[in-house]
Amino acid sequence: MSIGYADEYGIADRRRGALWIRVPVKPGAGAPLQGRVHALRQRQAMNYMLCQFCGRPTDDRPDGRHLFLLHAANGKPIADGERTATPPVCDGCALEVLGRPVVWRECAAALVEDATAWGVAGIVYAPETLRPVPSERGEPFTLVAYDDPRLPWTLACREVVALHGCTAVDLHDLAEHTTARALYPPCQRINTYRNEKGSL
Ligand SMILES: [Zn+2]
Question: Taking a C-beta distance cutoff of 8 angstroms, is the pair 103, 75 a contact?
């Protein structure tokens, strides 16, 4: 038993057992913003490690790590195993968002070796009543793991990954390194890396 659409259409509607919210697809229109995220773009960004802002791949680091810039109001660094629905960010967009004072106050950055599929953030329905179950602490969505028995009763709105192999990155260092990386085309970056002692 599970929730479903009367005209459910294969993997367009259901992934890994989770029914996905339907959203209009308008390639090139709009821009992802915190709190107003397009569900399909968010899922694609997570599945293919694309930048949450521009949609370009974030895997051009020689060590294969991805840069994550997450909301962390209390200044807590990103911890190993942390779950998030916020996709990674490319260097160009990282540089751009670091121009916003709010990011310095409320975000933490980490280079991440592995972002594994963990579950979804969505709306859980009660099997008996088919009414939405309120999420904890007034959050818009409930986090539901792929092996959670509530998954068949969840309308998925965001893909959630668990971050592993996290190395915290100081935002000042990030600003410095992304400036350097953004200034050099990819073919010149190899030499830049070799000359640097840092891990970026
Ligand atoms: Zn980008």
Answer: no
DSSP conformation letters of 42-86: HHHHHHHTB-TTT--B---STT--EEEEEE-TT-PPPPTT-EES-
Q: How far is the CA of 53 from the centre of ligand 1 (A)?
A: 5
The Å distance, Cα 33 to ligand 1 centre, comes to 12
pLDDT per residue over 8-54, tens digit each? 888 889 999 999 999 877 665 555 444 567 898 999 999 999 999 99
Structure pTM? 0.83
pLDDT tens column, 103-136: 888 899 999 999 999 999 999 999 999 999 998 8
Ligand 1 centroid to Cα of residue 47, in Å, is 16
What's the 95 CA to ligand 1 centre distance in angstroms? 9
Neighbours of ion ligand 1 (CB under 5 A): 51, 53-54, 90, 93
